[in-house]
Design brief:
The complex is a heterodimer of chains A (115) and B (113).
Chain A (H helix, E strand, L loop, with lengths): L3 E4 L2 E4 L5 E7 L6 E7 L5 E8 L5 E2 L8 E7 L2 E6 L8 E8 L6 E3 L3 E5 L1
Parallel strand pairs in A: 2-11
Antiparallel strand pairs in A: 1-3, 3-8, 4-5, 4-9, 5-6, 7-8, 9-10, 9-11
Chain B lengths: L2 E3 L4 E5 L4 E3 L2 E3 L6 E7 L6 E7 L7 E2 L2 E6 L4 E6 L8 E8 L5 E3 L3 E6 L1
Parallel strand pairs in B: 2-12
Antiparallel strand pairs in B: 1-4, 3-9, 5-6, 5-10, 7-8, 8-9, 10-11, 10-12
Classes of the chains: A mainly beta (115), B mainly beta (113).
Chain lengths: 115, 113
């Protein structure tokens, strides 16, 4: 079945540093990927939509200069949290459109802790 | 804009019994899909069931079935013969032409032995 590999699964970083999260579709081409953020005991909030070869579309209230998204190939999308602060600590999940008939394949998520 | 509402923050059910999780949605799209996802403690999102809005027949997947009422914009999930492994957060979601999913706030389901 369709698989999206997301790395790292967890990361701890210091305030002010940058962290890169990768999502890779292993057995299908993902022309569109979605990045979500999930706070504890809350739902998934869409941050941005990325299409291969073009700039990402960010949801209202999401700082595009802070959350850099790159979708340079049909199998890889990255989210870089720049100048991370403790309030950026959260669970980040990617989802690729494709791999199933009108289906979404989710990565396993990344728990980011900024100290 | 699309919205998805889950009015039951928490529910519990005895093992082997049946439980129904509620979901209502609103969308201006004419062609859309509805989903139920399960998120266990591992936080991996697992597709439970999917319904195409243009299909009148309710989707079923083994012990899981939906009651799709298009006019009422209702999409409830019924879990039959509940098992301990069904304990998880359940999210209702709507997907339209933009491709992105809009999630409800979730229902925490506990299956008790």
């Amino acid at each position: 079945g369709a698989v999206v590999s997301q790395h790292p699964s967890w990361v701890i970083c210091k305030s002010g540093t940058s962290v890169k999260i990768e999502c890779r579709s292993l057995d299908f081409q993902a022309t569109t990927m979605f990045w979500y953020r999930q706070f504890p005991k809350q739902s998934l909030m869409l941050m941005a939509t990325s299409n291969e070869g073009s700039k990402a579309t960010y949801e209202q209230g999401v700082e595009k200069d802070k959350f850099l998204i790159n979708h340079a190939s049909l199998t890889l999308s990255t989210l870089t949290v720049t100048s991370a602060h403790p309030e950026d600590s959260s669970f980040y999940i990617c989802s690729a459109l494709g791999g199933q008939v009108y289906g979404y394949t989710f990565g396993s998520g990344t728990r980011l802790t900024v100290v | 804009a699309q919205t998805v509402t889950q009015s039951q923050p928490e529910m519990s059910v005895q093992e082997a019994e049946t439980v129904t999780l509620s979901c209502t949605y609103d969308t201006s799209e004419s062609n859309y899909y509805l989903f139920w996802y399960k998120q266990p403690p591992s936080r991996q999102m697992i597709l439970v069931i999917r319904q195409e809005a243009y299909k009148q027949q309710n989707a079923t997947e083994n012990r899981f079935s939906v009651n799709f009422q298009k006019a009422a914009k209702s999409f409830s999930l019924k879990i039959s013969d509940s098992q301990l492994g069904d304990t998880a957060m359940y999210f209702c979601a709507s997907g339209g032409s933009q491709g992105n999913l809009i999630f409800g706030k979730g229902t925490k389901l506990s299956v008790k032995p």
